[in-house]
Design a protein that fits this description.
Helix 1 runs antiparallel to helix 6. This protein has 445 residues and is mainly α. It is globular and about 70 Å long. It contains 22 helices and no strands. Helix content is 78%, strand content 0%.
Length: 445
Amino acid sequence: MKKPTIIQMPDGYLNRTPVLQFILLSSLFAMWAMAASLNDILITQFKSVFELSDFASALVQSAFYGGYFLVAIPASMVIKKTNYKFAIITGLLFYIIGCSLFYPASHLATYTMFLFALFAIAIGLGFLETAANTYSSMIGPRQTATLRLNISQTFYPVGSILGILMGKYLVFQEGESLEAQMSKMSPEDAQVFGIQMLQHTLEPYKYIIFILIVVLLLFLFTKFPACKPEKLSNTTQKAKGNLLKTIKYLAGNNKFRKGILAQFLYVGMQTTVWAFTIRLTLHLNPHINERTASNFMIYSFIAFFAGKFIANLLITKYSSSKILVVYATLGSILLAYVAFVPNMTAVYAAIVVSFLFGPCWATIFAETLAEVDEEYTEVAGAVLVMAIVGGAVIPAVQGLVSDSLGNMQYAFIVSMLCFMYIGFYFYGKRETKKSIEADIQQSIS
């Protein structure tokens, strides 16, 4: 039986989704998730070895997500002049280079060199996310864009779990916690021991390089649809080709601006909660080591996966805005619990918060992108990826609050406030939609 022909619509969307290409595209979400989850391992390791404050250790996320911020617009320009596939291949190459830099970083054993390696990885991931998020939403019918991106995002927790498992068994070691072991040593012995522990940070990146090479080859030899809007008019093309005009249009789009803020705060909150979970566990139960504490991150990512899967089912029946209002309300309450209840139940509450993260990124991305005229899609997608810089800012803010208050738990109020904004944002979208529907109904009657 002949397969139905895949046809690209004038707006760049397709009449149906090519399954193989969609699966390969979705696998990229797992690729950058591995790198992001390993950051949580590195923060814990670096904090003890380099004797860092909460703010200084949060610079791991600042270097990582700062790279996203800087590369997103250049990546969108590459997409505009070439195609999504070329940008993805470019991102994979930079990702491989960044992972390779862990070889000299683990031997030089300086915090700055590690941050540089993470920044290089982030450049590659900036290309991947700028291309893959927008591409996933467009590689099929327009009406299922949000659902499609949510399905792609379901691969994210799978990669996160793999990253944490590699960190648990390849970076963290058996015995007492690193901080406890080093506290019993002389300064000279502790320095030598710390350098030995830093050698283990290289191990997971060796495996990631091999995985990336396989994925790179698959993309090189697989044909992908363009998914780029057709030329609409000479005026449109001039606007499309002028970056300043595009930025001015986006800056004047109030709905787009609100979506950018929501994405900024969401990514910052997600990154912060995950970055602090292992350390929260060690703080509340000092009798366990890093390897055991990392189990709670595995539980968090399993909860994240379940939250995405269930959200995908709910989105087929209910308004995505309604779902996000409920999720954000529950999440805000749970983060208040994490902040003020000084026992291990706070860690379990943080795990449930990860369940509620499930539909946030994809829904904010797809619905914000839908507020933009199609000729500005590439740059709008890049600006949304730039909002990932929230992952550089919010962890640092929570780290500063933690250092200022001398209490890691109270600092979770920062994350709670972020989730509250997400709730208000989607509540506003619901009210706007109701108002529009009421106006339409009134005009009909």
